[in-house]
């Protein structure tokens, strides 16, 4: 496993607007996520969680500071290179799934590969194999509207991990799901991380944050606290 | 009666309902069933057995080759156990909620940064949740243990939600007191009384 962090956020600030209307969404925030690590981000509404994820995935640009994905500094990349890195290395999962309604499950998952010039037949095979992994074998040809919320989110996760993605960014991926289905989604993310992928998960629910290796707490655009996992023994001794 | 004693008492009765056992066996079975979430020492087991015998709920049945006394549940023991299963656990016989008491006091003691108290607790409880989730992932197939773990996960989750609620309430209170003159707890109390009387 590579020792380069999958994600490195270094003293990053993001200010929206200017003058009196300026909003400091992030203030000098630093965070690292290692390959194989699942890091959860919690914090009150408006604390900067989504802004952090957007910066990590190159969907938004920092006002100050550096963001590196697998060692590559996003700010120094030309448009085309940035777009390629976003396609190849980063997978996104959102609360509302964001699947393309006119494409089947398999086509949705294969899309990022085809955009990356992988041949259709090979892309389809790769898509099917990831769909199998997330427990959707047999539903390759279903359209999003004919899938349950939990199934759609699995397709979205399959799309986020297909290919050689090293970083998954998930913003409230369980927000629209019941808790049992939410747990399945977390189990899936956890399995991908155990296989070496890094993930940053934004969640409001402690139950889901419990799946993470580390939980960071944001307030007013900075990290104010972080969990230090205990051993199982010390936990049970306290009950 | 103390809650922990209650659950050991009924725990032992429940195990004896399966078959007669001696103290060491009871201890091992209790821990196996609850996944060692509540470790027992042999002393606790024998004290509890002595009380159960005094109350006529178990009967000693002579000793085995190693001179260990086996206990069997009596008819009134079985009835007592059935009654326990039939009754819901109520707030009155749960232990006091130390955390709620701590925060209720924290907001009245000058100089305590309540927001920090809340955050430290949130961090600790989420940490517990991480460990519980890890144990849960390793608990495949053991139903009793996984139910105990889920109970702890739900409790921890509820605690974090309540902490979120406390934080919101604190922020609202801070905005309110910032826009109106500061009141002491006693004054606030008086105005409540006055409102109630009018
Ligand atoms: N495009 C924008 N223009 C102006 N302000 C913005 C913009 N995007 C975000 N903000 C502000 O930045 C702050 C952080 O927003 P962000 O969406 O990151 O919060 P969040 O932690 O994800 O909240 P939530 O839990 O509600 O999703 C907020 O005050 C928000 O209003
Ligand atoms: Mg958000």
CATH superfamily of chain A: P-loop containing nucleotide triphosphate hydrolases
Q: Examine the coordinates and then state which fold CATH places here, giving the name of the CATH topology of the largest domain in chain B.
A: Arc Repressor Mutant, subunit A
Global mean pLDDT of chain B: 82
And the CATH topology of chain A?
Rossmann fold
Which shape of chain B, going by the Cα principal axes? elongated
Task: Describe the oligomeric state of these chains in a short phrase.
Answer: heterodimer
Instruction: Give the number of domains of chain A.
Output: 1
Give short descriptive properties of this protein.
heterodimer, A: 239 residues, alpha/beta, Rossmann fold, 6-stranded mixed β-sheet, 4-stranded antiparallel β-sheet, 10 strands, 35% helix, globular, B: 198 residues, mainly alpha, Arc Repressor Mutant, subunit A, 3-stranded antiparallel β-sheet, 68% helix, 7% strand, elongated, disordered C terminus, binds adenosine-5'-triphosphate, binds magnesium ion
Describe what you observe in this structure:
With 239 residues, chain A is α/β, with parallel strands linked by helices. Chain A has a single domain, classed as Rossmann fold. Helices cover 35% and strands 25% of the residues of chain A. In chain A, the strands form two sheets. Chain A has a six-stranded mixed sheet with strand order 6-7-8-3-9-10, sandwiched between helices. Chain A has a four-stranded antiparallel sheet with strand order 2-1-4-5, covered by helices on one side. In chain A, a hairpin with a 2-residue loop joins strand 9 (214-219) and strand 10 (222-226). In chain A, helix 5 (149-161) runs parallel beside helix 6. Chain A starts with 6 loop residues before the first strand and ends with a helix. Chain B is mostly helical and 198 residues long. Chain B folds into two domains: 3-93, Arc Repressor Mutant, subunit A, CATH 1.10.10.10; 98-182. Chain B contains eight helices and three strands, in the order αβααββααααα. In chain B, strands 1-3-2 form a three-stranded antiparallel sheet. At the A-B interface, helix 7, strand 10 and helix 8 of A face helix 6 and helix 7 of B.
């Amino acid at each position: 496993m590579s020792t380069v962090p999958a994600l490195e956020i270094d003293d990053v600030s993001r200010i929206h607007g200017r003058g009196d209307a300026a909003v400091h969404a992030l203030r000098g925030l630093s965070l690292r996520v290692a390959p194989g690590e699942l890091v959860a981000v919690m914090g009150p509404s408006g604390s900067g969680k989504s802004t952090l994820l957007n910066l990590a995935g190159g969907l938004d640009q920092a006002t100050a500071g550096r963001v590196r994905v697998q060692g590559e500094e996003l700010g120094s990349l030309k448009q085309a290179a940035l777009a390629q890195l976003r396609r190849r290395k980063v997978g996104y999962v959102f609360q509302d799934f964001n699947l393309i309604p006119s494409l089947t499950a398999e086509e949705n998952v294969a899309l990022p590969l085809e955009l990356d010039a992988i041949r259709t037949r090979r892309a389809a095979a790769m898509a099917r194999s990831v769909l199998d992994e997330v427990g959707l074998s047999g539903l390759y040809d279903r359209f999003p509207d004919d899938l349950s919320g939990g199934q759609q989110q699995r397709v979205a996760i399959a799309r986020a991990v297909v290919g050689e993605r090293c970083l998954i960014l998930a913003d409230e991926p369980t927000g629209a799901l019941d808790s049992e289905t939410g747990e399945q989604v977390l189990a899936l993310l956890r399995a991908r991380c155990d296989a070496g992928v890094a993930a940053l998960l934004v969640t409001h629910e402690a139950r889901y944050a419990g799946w993470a290796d580390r939980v960071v707490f944001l307030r007013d655009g900075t990290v104010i606290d972080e969990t230090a996992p205990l051993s199982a023994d010390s936990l049970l001794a306290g009950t | 009666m103390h809650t922990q004693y209650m659950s050991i008492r009924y725990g032992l009765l429940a195990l004896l309902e399966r078959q007669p056992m001696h103290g060491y066996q009871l201890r091992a079975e209790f821990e196996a069933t609850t996944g060692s979430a509540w470790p027992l020492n042999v002393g606790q087991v024998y004290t509890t057995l002595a009380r159960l015998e005094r109350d006529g709920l178990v009967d000693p049945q002579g000793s085995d080759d190693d001179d260990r006394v086996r206990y069997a549940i009596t008819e009134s023991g079985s009835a007592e156990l059935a009654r326990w299963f039939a009754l819901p656990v109520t707030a009155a016989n749960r232990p006091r909620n130390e955390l709620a008491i701590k925060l209720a006091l924290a907001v009245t003691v000058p100089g305590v940064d309540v927001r920090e108290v809340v955050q430290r607790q949130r961090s600790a409880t989420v940490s517990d949740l991480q460990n519980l989730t890890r144990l849960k992932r390793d608990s495949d197939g053991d139903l009793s243990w996984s139910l105990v773990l889920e109970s702890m996960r739900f409790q921890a989750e509820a605690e974090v939600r309540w902490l979120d609620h406390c934080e919101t309430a604190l922020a609202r209170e801070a905005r309110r007191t910032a826009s109106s003159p500061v009141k002491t707890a006693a004054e606030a109390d008086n105005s409540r009384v006055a409102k109630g009387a009018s």
